[in-house]
Amino acid sequence: MIWGAAGGLIATPLIHLLAQRTRHVAARQQAAGWALLTIGSVIIGAAAMLIRPIAAAGIYATVLALLLVAAAVDATEQRLPNVLTIGGGGFALAGLSAVTAVTGAGSPWRAMAGGAIFGGWTLLAALLARDGYGLGDVKLAAACGVLASWLSWTALAVAILATQIAIAIALLHAKARGRQHAPLGPAFVVGLLVAIAIARS
Fold first, then answer.
1. Do 80 and 137 touch, CB atoms closer than 8 A?
2. Rounded to an integer, what distance in angstroms lies between the CA atom of residue 83 and that of residue 103?
3. b/e string for 63-82 if b means 16 or more Cβ within 10 A?
4. Cβ(137)–Cβ(185) under 8 Å?
5. Can you give the residue ranges of every domain in the chain?
6. Residue 19 pLDDT more than 50?
């Protein structure tokens, strides 16, 4: 629980910086964004509590907080910062590899393969549907793949499926409001959280 709460709180200074960089966003949108980020931080804490060993829970909490902020940036500015996506994925792979070396839990090789699979899947979708995915989504997918597949192949499969469902919902919602595009970053984070919950339930 302590690790989960700490991971959620890590997002606080990053969220503050995000708010400063998005002053052009309407006040109502900022208020909604803050509410969603607060809820997201609580969910991150709960998700991290499911992870064992405890050292891995700390890594998951930290990286999930980074990915949550990346999703928030995408929702407000339509971009996914490399420092959060690539940085988060790299930190996850390095940290979880160390956890495996010490405790024997998880699999860094599976995590690496899972990142390549999820990232490759999204890259293929970006090439086939040029107006849908961007390279930022590919990097975020790779980071999500690392976190999901370190747990199991089943978690990776659930993450991919849940993400596709969340993306479909986001696109349908955007079209219902007369928009052709929607930020997809939040859908990747939602898919990953669903995978963690199912894998550890």
1. yes
2. 29
3. bbbbbbbbbbbbbbeeebbe
4. yes
5. 2-199
6. no
CA pair distance 22, 3, nearest whole angstrom: 29
Sign of CA dihedral 156, 157, 160, 162: negative
d(CA 27, CA 62) in angstroms, rounded, equals: 28
Q: What is the pLDDT of residues 92-124, one digit of tens each?
A: 999 999 999 999 999 999 999 999 999 999 999
Alpha carbon distance, N-terminus to C-terminus of the chain: 16
Among 23, 43, 24, which Cα is nearest to 35's? 43
Report whether 159 contacts 195 (CB < 8 A). yes
- Rounded to 5 degrees, φ, ψ at 105 are -80, 150
Q: pLDDT category, 39, cuts 50, 70, 90?
A: confident
Q: What is the pLDDT of residues 146-175, one digit of tens each?
A: 999 999 999 999 999 999 999 999 989 888
Distance CA 19, CA 118 (A): 30
> What is residue 133's DSSP assignment?
-
Six-digit token string for 111: 């995590």
